[in-house]
Amino acid sequence: MRFVFAIAAVLLLAAPAQAATHRVAPGQSLAAAYRAAAPGDVIEVAAGDYPEQSVPAVAGRGGPAIEIRPVTGAQVRFGGLDIDASHVTVHGIRTGDVSVDGGQDAEGPITDVLVDGGVGERLWLQNVRDVTIRGGSYGGVVDDAPVKIGSAPSSVGITLDGVDFHDAVATRPDVHMECVWAGDVQRFTVRNSIFRNCAYFGLFITHLFGTEPKDVLIENNVFEVTKQPSGADAPYAMMVAGSLSVMDGFTFRNNTFGADFALLAKRSQNSVVVGNLGPIGSCEDGVTYRHNVWTRMRCAPTDKVHAQATRQFVDIAGHDWRLLPGAAAIGGGDPSDHPATDRFGVPRGDRPDAGAHQFEAGAPATSAPLSGRMDARLLSRSVCARSRRGCRRTSTTLRVRLTQPATLKVRIQRRGRTVRTRTVVAPAGTTRVKIRGKGLRRGVKHRVGVTATGPSGGRLGPKWITLRVR
């Protein structure tokens, strides 16, 4: 019998302690609740607006992480959040500005921190290890970068996943800024995020005082066109600075670029650009390029060039960068090197598309059904079947103006019979389609018809225009 009691006592001592739940209400301090908690505990915050809060360092405290979250169904807003402790998880709180700063002590960085769904203007990270910022948004700053990763002491293992980086506005030409300034980060991952309304750059990776950046993964992101103080487009959506002596272990995979990006390190090794979509102005030595879709040039035999590739999205103005039916990026990715899912978690399968989004045939569109007007006209209503004296116009242009993106179906009919068909992916605005006279019958009136079909199936047209063939 004593043996049985001894076994029971051993099992009782070995059982893990039950995690405790601590509560914070308006007027109370998150810091006090954190000091009272133990590793693995939960701190629930009641609904309300709170002033700036802090998570202080507690000597000797290790993992597992203490989780800070709202009471079920509650909406919680902080006036800011300073995290000075390791092993902390924050879920579902409008945090205000966030700071995770290990200070200048290179021997004691802050480790194992997750901020999930935070919302604020600014994010500051320095001297951290294995920190993830997931979801939420940061931005709304004038003449400064809303997100900064301090250069020294260098940080290791930062992940930015599914974040909306937005509205870093420059008003003066002497300001040099971006949505995210990242100095000397090792094992740096940026994925599933969007960079919109950023000045100069969406993401700027640089070397300043710490250890040079290395082992960087940039994938499944959308980098919109960046702006100068004048309102004009800036040259680059993203930049790796020329201050790097070497760009080592950088991977840029399945991103959508609204503008060119610059890789300016003095040399490159173990770095690859694969499955991306956008314009590009140069191909860098020492970088491996594979299965990208560009608008102007190839950097590798497997790259594809299509002049309209960066216009074939559901709604650029509305920041909806999903691909339209027939887009050049469809099937343009690398079958052997791509993320398993796209920016929104859609499986890519064995035929990946280039860019941040995988096209889903028949998937419901989140944008409004096709509506408004479609204006279509021929710049010249006569065309020659072939060039000859007195008849040199062998082609004309069909100009179509839309208020929403759509797929255009252009048909040429002769006596009620379709003799030519062409499909064009068109953005909102004006699209021009060349109509050639070659192969059409001389002396006969033809009809050019155009129909616009939106991503959700709405349709405008057909509109018919008479074309004379001479």
What would you note in describing this structure?
It is a single chain. With 470 residues, the protein is mainly beta. Among the domains are: 135-323, no CATH class; 374-469, Immunoglobulin-like (Sandwich), CATH 2.60.40. The protein is built from 2 helices and 43 strands. Strands 1, 2, 5, 8, 10, 13, 16, 19, 22, 25, 28, 29 and 31 form a 13-stranded parallel beta sheet that branches. Strand 42 and strand 43 (459-469) form a beta hairpin. The longest helix is centred in the N-terminal third of the chain and has 13 residues, at 2-14. The radius of gyration is 28 Å and the shape is elongated. It starts with a helix and ends with a strand. Mean pLDDT is 89; it is low at 1-15 and 364-369.
What is shown here, in short?
This protein is mainly beta and 470 residues long.
Shape verdict = elongated
Helix share bin? under 10%
Number of extended strands: 43
Query: Sheet with the most strands?
Result: 13 strands, parallel
Compute the average pLDDT: 89
Distance separating the two termini: 110 Å
The oligomeric state is single chain
Sheet/helix structural class: mainly beta
What's the tally of helices?
2
Our estimate of the beta-strand percent is 35-45%
Low-confidence stretches: 1-15, 364-369
> What is the CA-atom radius of gyration, in angstroms?
28 Å
Which terms summarize this structure?
single chain; 470 residues; mainly beta; Immunoglobulin-like; 13-stranded parallel sheet; 9-stranded parallel sheet; 4% helix; disordered N terminus
Helix-strand blueprint:
Elements: H1 2-14, E1 21-24, H2 30-36, E2 42-45, E3 48-50, E4 53-55, E5 66-70, E6 76-78, E7 81-83, E8 88-91, E9 98-101, E10 110-116, E11 119-120, E12 123-126, E13 128-134, E14 137-142, E15 147-149, E16 156-161, E17 164-169, E18 178-183, E19 186-191, E20 194-198, E21 201-206, E22 214-219, E23 222-223, E24 236-240, E25 247-253, E26 256-257, E27 260-263, E28 268-269, E29 271-274, E30 277-278, E31 287-290, E32 293-294, E33 304-305, E34 313-315, E35 320-323, E36 374-378, E37 382-383, E38 395-402, E39 406-414, E40 417-426, E41 429-436, E42 445-453, E43 459-469
Parallel strand pairs: 1-2, 2-5, 3-6, 4-7, 5-8, 7-9, 8-10, 9-12, 10-13, 11-14, 12-15, 13-16, 14-17, 15-18, 16-19, 17-20, 18-21, 19-22, 20-23, 21-24, 22-25, 23-26, 24-27, 25-28, 25-29, 29-31, 30-32, 32-33, 37-43
Antiparallel strand pairs: 34-35, 36-38, 38-41, 39-40, 39-42, 42-43
